[in-house]
Amino acid sequence: MNRDFFRRSRFWMLVAIAGLFIACQPFAPPTAPPGSSESSPSASVASPEPVAESVFLNGAGATFPAPLYQRWFAEYNRQHPNIQVNYQPVGSGVGIQQMVSGTVDFGASDIAMTDEQIASVSDGVVLLPMTAGSIAVVYNLPDIGSGLKLSRSVLPGIFSGQIDRWNAPPIAELNPDLALPDTPIALVHRSDGSGTTAAFTAHLSAISDAWRSQVGSGLSVQWPAGIGVKSNSGVSAQVQQASGTIGYVEYSYAHLLGLSTAALENRSGNYVEPTLETTAIALDSVELPDDLRAFVTDPDGPDAYPIATYSWVLAYRTYDDPIKAATLREVLQWALADGQAMSAELGYVPLSTDVTRRVADAIEQIGPPAS
Questions:
Q1: Intrachain domains 20-133+310-363 and 135-308 with the same fold
Q2: What is the per-residue pLDDT across 85-113, written as a single tens digit (0 to 9) for each?
Q3: Where is the signal peptide (predicted)?
């Protein structure tokens, strides 16, 4: 059995798992539940006591953190069988919409809600950066494998469709040691409202005036070229299956599937691969403000990977059901105290001790309405 066999096995395993959780139709909650170190903050966050009665929580949103959130919620249920958390990774845009409409107990997004969106929620919103990671540019060139470098001019050139062949001079000049094929570039992007897209296009806007003026950034943009695919797992599958493709996904998907990732030119002019270390350096270049909304569009530092982001859980500030409020607090505090230790294995950056402390304080804002 060769390496390709194991990669294919991992891929189809992830696709099978994703198929259990990704729903293309609007989310419909069940009507009833069934019958340290700087990067290891568990020493500074106490594990909460479990809720005694059975509770069912429903969440939906970003696909970026889905592998980690699914691991968290499954493990928490194993430890606390009376608590079940259902999370559907349907995209950041849908997560925000369902949070605003009140059809979920919590949402998730790779882009923080705006002041206008928050103001439209009568129960208030608490924004909680629960994990972090990078956006990897993934590609499928079987005869090349790894080693592709993309500059700050070539990256937006490819995703705008202006550079459309793999051996085009701008790419070939950056990669003289690679035998780039004389074939078209098959570009893949997200078709759904996506926080991954928001982070990726925010970086392209930061490094390219033309991209900023012609395409811009956001959960959804009018792509100049390529085909649209839903979800991080969908883009990963498309790139994995088709030679000559290129796309962007949360690093965890590239990590789990063994996809080739490009080294991107950062602000210092260095070509950097997405790793936990280079992503942590990027995140450290930005300090979280009091509202815990920070965007890392073009980080400083010679070793910083240029596309990094936090991913937020969106919780209501008040819940009519005090048991539900207490349960969500306890699940999220457990994710900070114990769940961060699961991050690196899945390709996510564990939150620093300082960020963890601030998020833990914010979680305590969740509760029942004031009497």
A1: yes
A2: 999 999 999 999 999 999 999 999 999 99
A3: 1-28
Query: How many Å apart are CA 194 and CA 348, to the nearest integer?
Result: 18
For the segment 276-293, the average pLDDT, to the nearest whole number, is 94
Structure tokens at 149: 């470098």
Beta strands in 235-307 (DSSP E): 245-250, 260-261, 263-265, 271-272
20-133+310-363: CATH topology is D-Maltodextrin-Binding Protein; domain 2 (3.40.190)
E-strand ranges in 140-285 read 149-150, 186-190, 227-229, 245-250, 260-261, 263-265, 271-272
Mean pLDDT taken over the chain? 88
> Where are the domains positioned within the chain?
20-133+310-363, 135-308
Q: What percent of the chain has pLDDT over 70?
A: 86
Amino acid at 247: G
C-alpha 35/C-alpha 315 separation (Å) is: 26
pTM beyond cutoff 0.70: yes
Confidence tier at 45 by pLDDT (50, 70, 90) = low
Q: Which pair of tokens denotes residue 20?
A: 């259990």
